Each structure stands twice: as C-alpha cells, then as structure tokens.
Amino acid sequence: MQSKYDLKSIIDLEKWNALQDSLSLVTQMAIITVDYKGVPVSRHSRCQSFCQAVRQDAELSSYCQKCDARGGLEAVRLNEPYVYLCHFNILDIAIPITVDNQYVGAVMAGQVRLAGNDDSRLEQIVSRPDTPGSTGTFAALREEYAQLPVMPYAQVESIAGMLSHLCNYIVEEASRKNEIMDLYQQTQAAPSAHIMSNKALADSRYIAVQAGDKEQSGAGALTGSGVPSLTTPAVPMGSCSNPVLQPAFDYIYSHKHENFTLEKMAQLCHISPSYFSRLFVRESGENFSVYISRLKMSWAKKLLETTELSINQISDQLSFCDAGYFIKIFKKHEQLTPAAYRSLVRGE
Asked: What is the structure's pLDDT at 182?
C-alpha cells in the first residue's frame, strides 16, 4: 500500500504541475511544491530571472536553501501560511500541506517585492553579510531585480489564504481516493473461500427482499392508506463485499419508491460516476441501470402477488413515469403484462 503521507504517491504530478502553472500565472508568483523533507516534487513554475541567477551563484545559493528550509519549518510550527523576506528582502510564502494533521509537504510561493513600506512588518528569515562577491552579483542583476512583480501586502495575504485552502483540499481529496483504492484492492485480494461471489451476493439480495416483503405482507404491515410501505427494507440487506459501495446499496433498499441515478449514488459513495460504474459492475455482475430495472421488477412482482394495488398504483409506488412505460418494462423482463402475471400466479 502506498504511504498515506507520501506526497509523491498522493498527487498526480503531471496534473499538479499543470495546476501549479495556472496558479502561478493567475497570482503572478513563482511556485514550487516540496515534500516534508524539503525536496522538490514539482517543477518550479514562473521562477523569476533574478532568483534563477542567484540560486545558480555558488556563494548565494546556500542562503536561498536556508530561507526555504526555515520558512517551511516555521509554517509547520504555526500550521498556517508563513510570509517572510529572503536574504535579498524578496517576499516568499511557505504554505504547509497536511493530511489528518500530518505534515506531508509545503507549497513555496513568492519571488515578489512589496509595495511601499509594507515589508516593515515582515521578518527577514536569514541574514546575509555583504561581501564583494554578493554586492557585485546584485549590481549585475539590478535590472532583473527591478522586474520582480510588486504587490501590496493585503494582496499577498489573500493569495496565501487561497493557495492554502486550495492545495490542502486537493491533497486531502486525493489522499481519500487513494485510501479507497487501497481498501478496494485489499478486498479484491481476500481469499475467495471467505467471501461470497459478486453475482451470488447480488442474487441473495433479491431473495432477501422477496422473503422480507412476503413476511411484511403476511403480518399486515400497511401504511395508513392501505398501501404496503416501500420506504424501509423489510429485512436488513447483506453487507456489500466492497464497502465503498455500501452507502449506495443501503440507500437503494431503503428508498424503493424513488428513482435512482448513477450520479446520485456515486455522490453518496464520494467517488466519481465513472469509478462508481466500474465498481458496481464488478460487485453485481451487471451495469447499474440493468440492476435497478431488475430490482424494480422484483418489487413489482411481489406487489402484484400480495396486494390488490392497481397497475397504476404500483407504477406510481415504484416511480415509473407512467403506467404504460411500467407495463412495457415489466413485459420485457417477464414476457407477460403485469395483469397477466397477477392472474397467472393467482390461478385466475
């Protein structure tokens, strides 16, 4: 199983780099993502010419690395974005990324100058003595330094907050998806002798709901209008072999009177519709629409067998758009109309 706290395993780096490039373009800030050790895991988006040159200088590059390391540590300590000045008084931001309160890495943004005297409130995180070499380098790069973006502090704060919320949300969601995938792979790897086959499990649900409806009908369990209740399952349904899908099966069997859409069931399971569809076929042996149609016909047959409800009432109870469509679907499944089926099972 991939580590839950390994940033490289959690995120899709290709998509992350594309997102980072877009954020850099919108915010006008240079951005790079590092893991909890401070090792870059993404490319450097929009790195400014001045900073590129300084980081390539043998004397000055070590001070840049110290700024990155100390900025990240301070952000972790505060558990919030940390805004500071580097050794050239250029603004940088360290944004910690956490999953379940565990520090997994940081987004480093910045390479901008503050407008006016706004930098008076910020700490220069690393001090550097002036040397002939550093003074000469700065003089040679004065034009590149002047081209650095200039922002007011209020704008920097807004960007820091936005990046923090967005990055942590994306990483946490990606982490949850990985957990679900790991859990599913574990269930798939379980010895077959200890789990029911997917098709047998699906068929057992039909048997259980039919037996439950018969028991409920025999006990006279009716609603106030004399219509058998379809809002709660007659008997508890068996657990789904894939726990990711369990919320969907629970909802289906406790809301027989509703129409079910794949999108809504996927939302209940907190996964995408396409992923839900794939898992559902593996679980039940058939696609979602076929499964629901067959299940609705099973419920319709029990109502025809055990109640005096009209065809229109049964159609309404099972949320078909009209009785004609219900009759068409029923005949497709049973090769009989609902009325003919009722007569047949009652020996009329």
From this structure: 64
